[in-house]
# Entry
Amino acid sequence: PSAPLPSDETMAEAEAVPKGAAVLVAESLGQMGFADAELVQFVVERNGPDLDACVNDLATLNDEAGLRDLAEMGFTDAKLNAKLLIKNRGSVKNTVRDLLGELRAEM
# Structure
């Protein structure tokens, strides 16, 4: 026996539930072309529902030179590199410091 389908009334009530501000910001970022869900979640957690701050953080990665430089230096975890570049406002130097600090902590 299959479960009954929700009624139109139940569906309308579910759609009427307001979405959280963070969800709306994440959806807006997706509509703007920021497709990496992990990075979108990272900037939303970092900035809260401040869409402009989230966009600015993600725009830091538009210049792929920083990510390329980190990869050439042997830092191959692209997601971690991206998150740390965002954290450090695009500063490769500060990102390398953070990466080296993590490496030291692992030893």
